[in-house]
Amino acid sequence: GVPDFSPVAKAQFEIEYMLGGTGKHGTKARTINFKQADQKLTEQLNNSPELASKFGMTPGKIKAGDIADYREEYKLTWHELNDVKTIQLVPSEINGKFGHLGGVGEINAGAFKPGEFANK
User: Fold this and answer.
1) Fewest C-beta in 10 Å: which of 32, 84, 92, 110?
2) Considering only CA atoms, which of 13, 23, 46 is closest in space to residue 104?
């Protein structure tokens, strides 16, 4: 099944392009997906004092590396959704406990092309 992490997501939005792959290619793909998400969240926080305060950050001074550090400190990860364009910031423990494919798994299975709808 497809888990719904919306109730525990600290952020959710679409990224420009989601990549898939297995082995070392999968690791590279996730790194790129996560960097896109870190950058997009950086932009959102820098433009919203209210949202930045929820993350304990000061808008206008946030860098993508700050988001990566925040994820590590608070044990959060990016979860790529099955639509292969939406990504959520969720607790790593919760993401890891559910057996699921997610967006990268869907791309690898050939069900989707990055940023497009299912081709089945």
Assistant:
1) 110
2) 23
Residues 89 and 33: beta-carbon distance below 8 Å = no
Q: What is the pLDDT of residues 40-80, one digit of tens each?
A: 999 999 999 999 999 999 999 999 999 999 999 999 999 98
Query: Rounded to whole angstroms, what are the CA distances from 84 to 6, 15, 25, 54, 114?
Result: 16, 9, 17, 27, 6
- Tokens standing for residue 112: 């989707």
Residue 120 forms part of a structural domain: no
Sign of CA dihedral 72, 38, 105, 5: positive
Distance CA 12, CA 31 (A): 17
Contact, 72 vs 1, CB < 8 A? Answer: no
As given in the structure block, the two tokens for residue 107 are 């791309």
Query: Shortest CA distance to 64 belongs to which of 78, 43, 85?
Result: 43
In a domain, 59, yes or no: yes
Q: Determine, yes or no, domain membership for 114.
A: no
Number of domains in the chain: 1
